[in-house]
């Protein structure tokens, strides 16, 4: 068999571990050819790939990023994209393609597989942890650990200065990183896209806390957090070349407003792409490895149109159709019953 693999969308720690597992199982155990496409779908449409064997994936398990490169954008951006992709499968004698991607890439993979009959299986990834159908995506745990380490460090400096630190983490549509890192780091307040906030309420929490003495307040903000309508003016976000909102301004609005309302000095820390870089945690390496092996099983089973997922600790398969245009939002019980108990 010829089995292709690509990584799509934003990178995340653990991608290389998936690639390594696919090569180990399909090529060195199964004797099949594995073609690694460069730069996501660009590599497919332009037939840019390299044949991957065990020597090519040696040592990549702990390495962040993706050895194949990644891009946003996909064949469905072109009117004849699906047809062109089909032709590449024919030209290269491709029996299957494993797409390792987040919501965007899996939606595209689902359209190509479920609507156009291409032999594609999916592997969910993203630090945002927001793919519907799976209990977790790899990369998330690593990002949470990085954010938690940062919060821990910010505690001491904030305390020394009796300051309010506003820490912005990734999470455009779902606040998983903010929620988990906020709980783990003992945040004063956590602001997530799913629960619009009132800046006056946040300021009251901060003020009350500092009244008790010299304190550090750490407000953890997901980049996609939104104020309740009419409570805070936020500038219109700019768009990137794919038409997605460029985040990174909400904390710049929140911090000065908290200062104004409380009288305490504030500082903004935007963790940005630091959360996506570097080596995956052990948990993410194990999950990536399990997903990679299961993706090869899905190819052998001809479970095209499916993706591998984690459910109650077990690796299963579900149709990629569940991802189409969907976002897996946070567990509101975790926000209300656990995180909010410690606000203030
Ligand atoms: O991959 C998801 C994500 O990490 C989001 O949380 C974030 O908004 C986005 O990627 C940033 O994308 P880019 O790398 O294109 O700036």
Write down the overall mean pLDDT. Answer: 96
Q: How many strands?
A: 11
Helix/strand structural class: alpha/beta
Q: Which ranges are low-confidence, i.e. pLDDT below 50, for 5 or more consecutive residues? A: none
Largest sheet, described in full? 5 strands, mixed
Number of domains: 2
The share of residues in extended strands comes to 15-25%
Global outline: elongated
Bound molecules: 6-O-phosphono-beta-D-fructofuranose
In words, what does this structure look like?
The chain is of the alpha/beta class and 344 residues long. It folds into two domains: 2-139 and 280-323, 3-Layer(aba) Sandwich (Rossmann fold), CATH 3.40.50.450; 141-277, Rossmann fold (3-Layer(aba) Sandwich), CATH 3.40.50. 39% of the residues lie in helices and 17% in strands. The chain is built from eleven helices and eleven strands. It has a five-stranded mixed β-sheet with strand order 3-2-1-4-5, sandwiched between helices. Strands 7-8-6-9 form a four-stranded parallel β-sheet, sandwiched between helices. A hairpin with a 2-residue loop joins strand 10 and strand 11. It is elongated and about 70 Å long.
């Amino acid at each position: 068999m010829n089995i292709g693999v690509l990584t799509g969308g934003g990178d995340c720690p653990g991608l290389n571990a998936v690639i390594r597992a696919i090569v180990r199982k399909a090529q060195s155990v199964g004797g099949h050819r594995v073609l690694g496409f460069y730069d996501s779908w660009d590599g497919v449409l332009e037939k840019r790939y390299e044949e991957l064997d065990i020597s090519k994936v040696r040592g990549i398990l702990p390495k962040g990023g993706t050895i194949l490169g990644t891009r946003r954008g996909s064949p469905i951006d072109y009117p004849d994209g699906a047809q062109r992709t089909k032709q590449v499968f024919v030209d290269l004698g491709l029996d299957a393609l494993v797409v390792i991607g987040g919501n965007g890439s899996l939606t595209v993979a689902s359209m190509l597989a479920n609507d156009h009959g291409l032999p594609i299986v999916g592997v969910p990834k993203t630090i945002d942890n927001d793919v519907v159908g799976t209990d977790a995506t790899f990369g998330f745990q690593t990002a949470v650990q990085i954010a938690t380490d940062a919060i821990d460090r910010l505690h001491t400096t904030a305390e020394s200065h009796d300051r309010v630190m506003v820490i912005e983490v990734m999470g455009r549509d779902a606040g998983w990183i903010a929620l988990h890192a906020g709980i783990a780091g003992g945040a004063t307040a956590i602001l997530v896209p799913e629960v619009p906030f009132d800046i006056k309420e946040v300021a009251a929490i901060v003020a009350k806390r500092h009244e008790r003495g010299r304190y550090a307040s750490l407000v953890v903000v997901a980049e996609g957090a939104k104020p309740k309508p009419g409570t805070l003016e936020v500038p219109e976000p700019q768009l990137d070349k794919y038409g997605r909102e460029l985040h990174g301004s909400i904390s710049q609005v929140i911090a000065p407003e908290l200062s104004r309302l409380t009288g305490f000095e504030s500082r903004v820390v935007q963790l940005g792409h630091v959360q996506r870089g570097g080596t995956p945690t052990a948990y993410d390496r194990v999950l990536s490895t399990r997903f990679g092996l299961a993706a090869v099983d899905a190819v052998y089973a001809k479970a095209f149109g499916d993706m591998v997922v984690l459910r109650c600790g077990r690796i299963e398969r579900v149709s990629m159709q569940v991802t189409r245009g969907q976002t897996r939002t946070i567990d509101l019980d975790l926000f209300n019953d656990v995180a909010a108990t410690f606000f203030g």
